[in-house]
Amino acid sequence: MPGTSSEALVFGHRGASYDLPEHTLDAYLRAIADGADGVECDVRLSRDGHLVCVHDRRLERTSNGRGLVRRQSLAELQQLDFGSWHSERPAELLTLERLLGAVREAGRPLRVLIETKHPTRGGRAIEPTLAALLKRFNLDRPDRDDPAGVTMMSFSPLALQRMRVHAPQVPRVFLMEVLPPGLRGGQLPYGARIGGPGIGLLRARPQLAERLLERGNGVYVWTVNEPADIELCHRLGVTGIISDRPGFVRQQLDVR
Ligand code: G3P
Ligand code: CA
């Protein structure tokens, strides 16, 4: 119901990536220390099939490496510096396994949103590997009301469908940058129960959040960094706010 978003979950987008280099362990630990309810990360497969937390297809923007992430082995990626481009301090590659371990050791329940970034056509599917790792961490059969646990996200209906096959009980978010045809009624594809509109889409079409909520879906909005956008999310009663500045969002929601 609109107007109740003091209960919105706050997620650190790529960690606390406003302050620290995205997808580094330090960025995630900062998000947790800043009071986030959970964290968001993007995952890709290395050449030898390891899940690594990197947003871009290529290495150049966030590391001192070159070329495609999927062409490098884990050992090769671990030689690179993923910190200096942002904070002038080196940082090593983060694997999803390490992130899940850090979350487990955090001392309080936390949620992890995992966005699969691997190619959905032509390349190797990432979702079977993700499902196997979640099984190993006992995260593949979450309780519905558990404040910890993992949620999978994708812009790709094909990726959502694959995840439904390989780990049917893991909740799924259908991410949207623009309004997809056929979504006007609020029905999400492939059993996703959470809609994930970008903040630009939400500004243009706030009624989308209302329709999704009316149908009993969650609404997780990204990437919400500014006071006016936090206010919009609050007013619409969205259920999750994904932000580069989770501590700031938390403060803005708490002063209400
Ligand atoms: O949380 C969803 C959001 O992360 C999607 O966009 O490009 O930041 O992965 P992107
Ligand atoms: Ca993402």
Automatic annotation (TrEMBL):
Domain annotation GP-PDE: ranges: 8-253
Signal peptide (UniProt feature, chain positions): none
GO biological process: lipid metabolic process
One protein family per Pfam: GDPD
Gene3D superfamilies: Phosphatidylinositol (PI) phosphodiesterase
InterPro entries attached to this UniProt entry: GP_PDE_dom, PLC-like_Pdiesterase_TIM-brl
GO molecular function, one term: phosphoric diester hydrolase activity
Protein name per the record: Glycerophosphoryl diester phosphodiesterase
Species of origin: Virgisporangium ochraceum
